[in-house]
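Today's session is about reading a structure prediction critically. Students often jump straight to the picture, but the first step is always the sequence itself: look for stretches that repeat, for charged clusters, for runs of hydrophobic residues. Only then move on to the predicted structure, which in these notes is written as discrete structure tokens rather than atom positions. Here is the chain we will use throughout the hour.
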Amino acid sequence: MNKVELLGRLTRDPEVRYTQTNNTLVASFSLAVNRRFVRQGEERQADFINIVAWSKLGEFCSKYFKKGQQVAIIGRIQTRTWDDDQGQKHYVTEVVAEEAYFAEGRRDAEASGGFDNAFGAMPTGGESDFETTSNDDLPF
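Below is the predicted structure for this chain, in token form.
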């Protein structure tokens, strides 16, 4: 079984391009994923994982994911090779996303700059029009 689950922060905004053959959208970005262990006396290390998302999922990622935002990706590992113009062979390993999720609360994302008002985030720093003082005020 080839299944990968990652939780990390985007190192850059997703980059969008289209295939030459059938004009399919593909978004690519990388995630900084912290390692689970820290050696004594050292700082926590991270791995930088390349992600590729196709079609509708790629469109979603390119529209809503921003640098620094924490996201969860579920997908599969893929390796591919190609020869460049000089005949040199190149290898790449990446995760092909099959599912993508926001992995932090809206307030956390606003504080880290992950959301902006263009995508429906509540403005920061202002008072809310809706306030309750106890759970008795809630209609459910």
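Discussion point for the tutorial: Residues 14 and 61 are 7 Å apart (CA to CA).
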